[in-house]
Amino acid sequence: MARKIAILGGTGAEGSGLAFRMAKAREHILIGSREAARAQETAKVLRERIGGGAQIEGMDNSSAAAACDVAVLTVPFSGVVALLKQLKTVWKPGTVVIDTTVPLAATIGGAATRVLGVWQGSAAEQTKELLPASVSLAAAFQNLGAETLAGDDPVDCDVLVCSDDEKAKQVASELVGKIPGARALNGGKLENARIVESLTALLIGLNMRYKVHSAGIRFTGLPVK
Q1: How far apart are CA 46 and CA 107, in angstroms?
Q2: What pLDDT is attached to residue 108?
Q3: Residues in Cβ contact with 142 at an 8 Å cutoff, skipping those fewer than 6 apart
Q4: Reported pTM
Q5: Residues of the chain with pLDDT under 50
Q6: How far is CA 61 from CA 21, 44, 82, 127, 173, in A?
């Protein structure tokens, strides 16, 4: 049976962009949202755009989390705690969660170029505290912008994958590889997400200063796969 990938918060710009890219790669996508009707509408739009029998369903976040094998967390940082508490008893053992969250000050009315201090050290480490022990976690996709994901062109960006769980790291890296042009790099332990998350604020600043929407990161001197 094909795996199901839930995009929690999938009606937002980042979530719908990832859903689009994953569905184009023939993954079975479950778009989750606070409102099932909104998720269903986004799924319909993406199915029509992709065509060719794309497998995209829309449902509420709880239903998507309960049905998936892999969940990608794309909700704003300000809503993460409430959502994960809501999903605490929903997860299937063995589910892999991929956290794309960045604690930007913009989520609470501040500047998009500033990162909030998180008691646990990073948004990903906060997520780890709120997940059951039977669920594994990786942090990835924080530096891949929504507008870039929404397009059809190959991306020009490396994606750092941080995790203390090798299975989660492998699954996240595999999904990165579904996006043409993206390269997954082993970012080490989950605590390194602190560094990766802060890079997003830097990239937003670069986009603003250079009047572009697609600034990304590339690391040189590494083996090319």
Answers
A1: 26
A2: 84
A3: 100, 101, 102, 160, 193, 196, 197, 199, 200
A4: 0.95
A5: none
A6: 20, 17, 12, 16, 24
At residue 133, the 3 state secondary structure works out as coil
Cα separation values, 193 from 35, 122, 168, Å: 30, 6, 14
Largest CA distance in the chain: 47
* Residue-wise pLDDT tens digits, 164-222: 999 999 999 999 999 999 999 999 999 999 999 999 999 999 999 999 988 999 999 99
Task: Quote the DSSP letter at residue 47.
Answer: H
What ranges make up the beta strands (E) of the chain?
4-8, 28-33, 56-60, 70-73, 96-99, 136-139, 157-161, 182-186
Do 96 and 168 touch, CB atoms closer than 8 A?
yes
Please give the single-letter amino acid code of residue 102.
V
Alpha carbon 191 to its chain's center:
17
Residue 192's closest CA among 114, 136, 105, 124? Answer: 124
Map out the domains of the chain with their CATH numbers: 4-210 (3.40.50.720)
Place of tokens 């959502």: 83
pLDDT of residue 1: 62
> How does pLDDT run across 207-221, given as a tens digit for each residue?
999 999 889 999 999
Report in angstroms the alpha-carbon separations of 89 from 56, 63, 93, 123: 25, 12, 10, 21
